[in-house]
């Protein structure tokens, strides 16, 4: 089976316009069904949850349906889903909720390839005597070596934080292998999956991460985010809500101020959409359809990535940052590069004129850009495609890039 692009593109109203959107790692386009759900919530059930009257009961059920949808999306239980405004916010909440469990002499391992969302919140614990240890990538290949991680682990390690896929490199990291190393040392694993979630099916049971978080606005939905946490781990976390919320009130003790109800309800549309891609290919509804839908997504994106990477490889002036492989297991369809000493800003601004939306900079993965001398070219040029992009749009991008390379 191949992806029905006519069906796919008809689900996203913005794609009917003049622009080709290839800045999707910053935020994807939104499904019509998502916007309709948000509108329906606001216009028919915009009341506080938890009351006895009927509109409130409906509102409560709709928010619960969102947890159930993302439990299906990630293969976990609905009670293990924490919701919030963004991955950055949820990781800050998680860090705060781990305060009583981290103290002088404890150690946290961070990488220098992560988005700052999975770095900054953990650095704050250094002021309380927690030691921060860095798992740094190879300066030439930008790869994280598992042997280096093993060398960092010891009996004082409490937490390892890593990205599933780099939002600059596109590299897919071997999360299950990392989890095995982390758990063998008695530590916990926190995974930022923002740059992975739009591209591949997620199975947190198979990955064995303790915490796993991503933003729904990168996965065809509204500005909303979800975090999986193993039930026993969530129960151990501090309450960061009102004093009368005890530690057993999971997930609500980790959602201060309540969640955005309309975004939670609207986000169900993104899960339903991927599932529909799978059922249209013949898969049974549920997890099987989600996996089949993402299988179609992955193959479509592999072809687009190969089209772009093959072109970039033909230009001596271009350096692809990260893996050149376009294998589905190796990378997602986010491709970054530099052009000699040319400003990445100049390259992107040339492409703007062709109504193709790409981007330059460090994308809040500032440490890897600065540590490896990429700031001198205004960061990297990043092309971040998703399954609704087309070969014709990649051709448009290439035609716009050629004069600048």
Automatic annotation (TrEMBL):
The keyword ATP-binding does not apply. It holds the Pfam family Aminotran_5. It comes from the Bacteria. This is Cysteine desulfurase-like protein. Keywords: Pyridoxal phosphate. The lineage of its organism: Bacteria, Pseudomonadati, Pseudomonadota, Alphaproteobacteria, Hyphomicrobiales. The keyword Cell inner membrane does not apply. Residues 21-397 form the Aminotransferase class V domain.
């Amino acid at each position: 089976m191949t992806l029905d692009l006519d069906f796919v593109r008809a689900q996203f109203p913005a794609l009917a316009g003049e622009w080709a959107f290839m800045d999707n790692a910053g935020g994807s386009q939104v499904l019509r069904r998502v916007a309709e759900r948000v509108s329906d919530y606001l216009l028919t059930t915009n009341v506080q949850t938890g009351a006895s009257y009927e509109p409130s009961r409906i509102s409560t059920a709709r928010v619960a349906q969102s947890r159930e949808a993302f439990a299906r999306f990630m293969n976990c239980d609905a009670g293990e889903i924490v919701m919030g405004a963004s991955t950055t916010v949820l990781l800050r909440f998680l860090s705060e909720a781990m305060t009583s469990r981290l103290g002088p002499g404890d150690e946290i391992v961070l990488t220098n390839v992560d988005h700052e969302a999975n770095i900054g919140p953990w650095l704050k614990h250094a002021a309380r005597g927690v030691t921060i240890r860095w798992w740094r990538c190879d300066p030439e290949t930008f790869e994280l070596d598992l042997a280096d991680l093993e060398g960092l682990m010891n009996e004082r390690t409490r937490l390892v934080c890593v990205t599933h896929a780099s939002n600059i490199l596109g590299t897919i990291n071997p999360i299950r292998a990392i989890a095995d190393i982390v758990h063998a040392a008695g530590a916990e694993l926190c995974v930022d999956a923002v740059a992975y979630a739009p591209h591949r099916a997620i199975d947190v049971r198979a990955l064995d991460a303790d915490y796993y978080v991503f933003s729904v606005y990168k996965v065809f939905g509204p500005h909303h985010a979800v975090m999986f946490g193993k039930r026993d781990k969530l129960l151990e976390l501090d309450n960061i809500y009102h004093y009368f919320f005890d530690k057993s009130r999971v997930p609500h003790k980790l959602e201060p101020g309540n969640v955005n109800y309309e975004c939670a309800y609207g986000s169900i549309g993104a899960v339903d959409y991927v599932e529909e891609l799978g059922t249209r290919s013949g898969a049974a509804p549920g997890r099987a359809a989600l996996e089949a839908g993402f299988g179609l997504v992955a193959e479509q994106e592999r072809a687009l990535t190969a089209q772009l990477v093959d072109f970039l490889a033909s230009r001596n002036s271009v350096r692809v940052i990260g893996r050149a492989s376009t294998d589905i297991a190796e990378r997602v369809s986010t491709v970054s590069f530099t052009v000699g000493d040319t400003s990445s800003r100049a390259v992107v601004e040339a492409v703007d004129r062709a109504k193709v939306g790409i981007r330059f900079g460090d994308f809040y993965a500032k440490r890897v850009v600065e540590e490896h001398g990429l700031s001198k070219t205004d960061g990297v040029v990043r092309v971040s495609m998703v399954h609704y992009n087309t070969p014709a749009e990649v051709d448009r991008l290439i035609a716009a890039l050629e004069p600048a390379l």
